[in-house]
């Protein structure tokens, strides 16, 4: 929870300082880095950013869902 809130609070600073110009990159940054709070903040930035943030957050969750058992078997 801390990561999401902290990421959403700093998103304005990060988006200004990082050289991310495309909506895809900005949305992916917020979706992966700040989770649900980041998706909410990305929707405030723009519709495309919000859509990408939600999609990236879901895809990251699915990747973790399938990768975790495989990694647990190896470790």
Q: State the low-pLDDT regions, or none.
A: none
Rg over CA atoms: 13 Å
**Order of SSEs:** HHH
The secondary-structure class comes to mainly alpha
Characterize the biggest β-sheet: none
Q: Considering DSSP H and I runs of 4 or more, what fraction of the residues is helical?
A: over 70%
Question: In total, how many beta strands?
Answer: 0
N-to-C span: 27 Å
In DSSP terms (H or I, runs of 4 or more residues), the helix count works out at 3
User: What percent of residues are in strands?
Assistant: under 5%
Mean pLDDT: 93
Oligomer: single chain
Spatial shape: elongated
Q: How many distinct folded domains?
A: 1
Provide an overview of this structure:
The protein has about 80 residues and is mainly alpha-helical. The protein is built from three helices and no strands. The model has no long low-confidence stretch (mean pLDDT about 95).
């Amino acid at each position: 929870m801390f990561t999401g809130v902290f990421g959403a609070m700093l998103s304005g600073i990060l988006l200004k300082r990082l050289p991310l110009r495309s909506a895809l990159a900005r949305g992916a940054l917020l979706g992966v880095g700040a989770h649900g709070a980041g998706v909410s903040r990305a929707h405030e930035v723009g519709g495309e950013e919000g859509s990408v943030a939600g999609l990236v957050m879901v895809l990251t969750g699915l990747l973790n869902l399938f990768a975790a058992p495989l990694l647990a078997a190896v470790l």
